[in-house]
Amino acid sequence: MIKGIHDRNVDAHPYRCLTHHSNQGRKVMPKGLLIDIAGVLYEGDQAVPGAVDTLEKIRRERIPFLLVTNTTRKTRHQLLDRLRALDFYLDEGRILSAVDATADYLRNNKLHPLLIVHPAIRGLFADLIDPIPNAVVLGDAGDNFDYDNLNRAFRLIMDGAPLIAMGDNRYFSDTDGRLSLDIGPFKAALERATGTQATVIGKPSATFFHSACKRLALPPEDVLMIGDDAQTDIAAAQAAGLQACLVKTGKYRPGDERHCPQAELAETFSDAVRGLVE
Ligand SMILES: [Mg+2]
Q1: Fewest C-beta atoms under 10 Å: which of 117, 153, 155, 247?
Q2: In a 10 Å sphere around its CB, with 0-12 CB exposed, 13-18 middle and 19+ buried, how is residue 162 labelled?
Q3: What gap in Å lies between CA 278 and CA 270, rounded to an integer?
């Protein structure tokens, strides 16, 4: 059993939060959707109840949507396999990942990274590796966040290399249902030690949200971001001019809405899009 799904009172008022917040706060009905993956579509090893059917309805009704993820322990292919194994029908073009956006950024800026990332995604950067790195790239490295690696990064940044972070999430909902450390705290440690500021590529970067909206061919104000991270998904999307809805699945913990008081709240992904799809 996944902690978090079953102890929620999902039947109590499925419309309550949307009605309460959205009709007051929603100026225009969204024409497109940006959907976070982990914690919104699945939790641990299970799809969030109703999410498979809801995404299928969105697809069938041809509502423009893109899955936007800061997950950096998986490549886009691995994410897609994971989603398909849970019965989400999708093609690869529907996923915008912070990992791919980071690789593009490095290529465009001719940077050769020292990688502090999870082994699963290293291969995506193979063509960018140089014996003399000129940038530090942080992903959610798991066990690779060790002293030696962080100290190598620290020294390189002190020598002038830019620090590039794939995201700035403080924590994520782990496979055991508990919260685990993400990139943000390690990024903050390196910023503190070096007195520099990282460039963040994925969420909460406004550039990331805007390039996602551009792919939907919609202005930000017509797009609704749905996520389980009150800051990185929701407050950040609002700051970038999007509409946003916080779901109470995944890493959500009671009280998180204080970080995004103007946002909509919904019990689940399906509740978040009620009114848009039948
Ligand atoms: Mg999430």
Answers
A1: 155
A2: middle
A3: 10
45 alpha carbon to ligand 1 midpoint, in Å?
14
pLDDT tops 80 at residue 16: no
Q: Are 236 and 204 in contact (CB under 8 A)?
A: yes
For residue 94, report the distance from its CA to the centre of ligand 1, in Å.
16
Q: What residues sit around ligand 1, an ion, with C-beta below 5 angstroms?
A: 36, 38-39, 228
| Confidence grade of residue 275 (pLDDT, cut at 50, 70, 90) | confident
* d(C-alpha 235, C-alpha 213), whole Å: 16
Residues in Cβ contact with 42 at an 8 Å cutoff, skipping those fewer than 6 apart? 48, 51, 82, 83, 86
Q: Could you write out the DSSP letters of every residue in 201-213?
A: -STT-HHHHHHHH
Q: Measured in angstroms, how far is the CA atom of residue 15 from the centroid of ligand 1?
A: 22
**What's the length of the chain?**
278
Q: List helix spans (H) across the chain.
A: 16-17, 23-25, 51-60, 76-85, 98-108, 147-158, 183-194, 206-216, 236-239, 269-272
What spacing in Å lies between the alpha carbon of 129 and ligand 1's midpoint?
A: 29
Alpha carbon of 20 to ligand 1 centroid (Å): 23
Confidence class for position 240, pLDDT limits 50, 70, 90:
very high
Instruction: Give the distance (Å) from ligand 1 centre to CA of residue 36.
Output: 5
List the domains of the chain with CATH numbers: 16-70+221-270 (3.40.50.1000), 109-200 (3.40.50.1000)
